[in-house]
Amino acid sequence: MKKTIVVQRNDPNADDASNERKLAELKELAHAADYVVVGVLVQSRYPDRKYQIGRGKVDELAELVEALDAEKVIFNNQLSTTQIYNISETCKCEVMDRFQLILEIFAARATTRRAKLQVELAKLHYELPKARSIVSLLKKEERPGFMGLGGYEDSYEQDIKKRIVRIRAELLHSCKGSESLRSFRHERGFSLVALAGYTNAGKSTLFQSLVKEGTIVEDMLFTTLSPTTRSLTINKRRMLLTDTVGFIEDLPYWMVDAFRSTLDEIFLADIILLVVDMSDPVDVIRQKLAVSHDIFWKRTEGAVIVTALNKTDLLPEEDLQEKLDVISYLAPHPVMISAISDKGTDELKQLLYENLPKWEHSRISIPMSEEGMSTVSWLYDEGIVHTIEYGDSILMEIEARDEIIQKVKPFVISS
Ligand SMILES: Nc1nc2c(ncn2[C@@H]2O[C@H](COP(=O)(O)OP(=O)(O)OP(=O)(O)O)[C@@H](O)[C@H]2O)c(=O)[nH]1
Ligand SMILES: [Mg+2]
């Protein structure tokens, strides 16, 4: 974890509360990218329009970097190439802006080929307008390595343009890889549950708390497909739980596709587990829920939404109930939880179980033979075996997806 200092120039036209919220969001983003925020610097008086930060403040920042031994400075406002260059010279550490931070988060979370291409595309869009000044700065200063650029040449800008064209073409032809991921998982009898919600809502904490008794062997298979997916068994039903990137507001248009593609897992899920931070002010919760539903709308097919109202440990019971009353129309299948203390986890698991795609019950009789025995072990893998009796034939009571029942149709006695 890298130590970082976050810097914000307050918007003089916005009120204190909204400036504070912006800063809080930046800290949350830094946390999401695995940084530890060790210091904060706010520029409240409006400096010269040309600068995001006044001269004196840059010196103050440099002192802070040294005192706190920070490795990185993250600005909430967009910076020009020259600004990044100059500030990093003075502070003697890496400097980046909010957009680069968000790109870093997307890059870390992109699991499918399509998502990776989208993130790469967004990065190139970010770099393109800066290409010329990067090259001229490097030429002036003879400083290779700046902004991750090794050697440089005049064709840098051309090069970026070519890569953009190439990626666009590949994206056009790439089929949705995650579709096949879904069928692969379904073939193996797993239902898909995706965690969704704003950054800092507590998705990853809940993910860890739900999967802590998960089965390691199966996990090894799926971690290679997606590093943020683990298996989870509730009442013998097996599901795959996927942690996803948090929703982020105020994205520029060139980042929207990259953001959406990191959410592919959500759009393919059987259940969307929407995590909400109940310690937010109720207006903020309502706004976040509305945006979340907007993101799911039209992109999900028949997914059930379960709303996990998290961080209930931070509020008294009456406040929780009051907030729930206001937001209930935006919170389908609600359950109050506290991911850090495991409170409500059992109710949540039960709710997930109840909302899984329905499985069929059947009584079947399978001939006692080698082939019959392999069918039995296949059924153990694919469904739930409630009872089994060995006699002249093998009598079983099973529960499984319809496709599975169809395959043993000739043996069905009753359903
Ligand atoms: N008090 C309290 N804090 C919580 C709870 N759940 C999570 N947190 C804290 O909230 C912060 C964010 O939690 P994460 O699990 O990283 O949130 P996230 O939704 O995964 O965030 P992103 O990955 O950035 O989208 C952490 O500091 C957690 O310790 C909770 O139930 N109660
Ligand atoms: Mg997380």
Automatic annotation (TrEMBL):
GO annotation, cellular component aspect: cytoplasm
A GO molecular function held by the record: ribosome binding
Residue sites binding Mg(2+) per the record: S204, T224
Alphabetically ordered keywords of this record: Cytoplasm, GTP-binding, Magnesium, Metal-binding, Nucleotide-binding
Location in or out of the cell: Cytoplasm
Cofactor(s) annotated in UniProt: Mg(2+)
Nucleotide-binding found in the keyword field: yes
Pfam assignment, any one: GTP-bdg_N
Amino acids binding GTP: 197-204, 222-226, 243-246, 310-313
Hflx-type G domain location: 191-360
Organism domain of life: Archaea
Subunit structure: Monomer. Associates with the 50S ribosomal subunit.
PANTHER family per UniProt: GTP-BINDING PROTEIN HFLX (PTHR10229), GTPASE HFLX (PTHR10229:SF8)
Family indicated by similarity: Belongs to the TRAFAC class OBG-HflX-like GTPase superfamily. HflX GTPase family.
Main function: GTPase that associates with the 50S ribosomal subunit and may have a role during protein synthesis or ribosome biogenesis.
HAMAP family xrefs: GTPase_HflX (MF_00900)
Protein name in the entry: GTPase HflX
Species whose genome carries this gene: Methanococcoides vulcani
The organism's taxonomic lineage, starting at the top: Archaea, Methanobacteriati, Methanobacteriota, Stenosarchaea group, Methanomicrobia
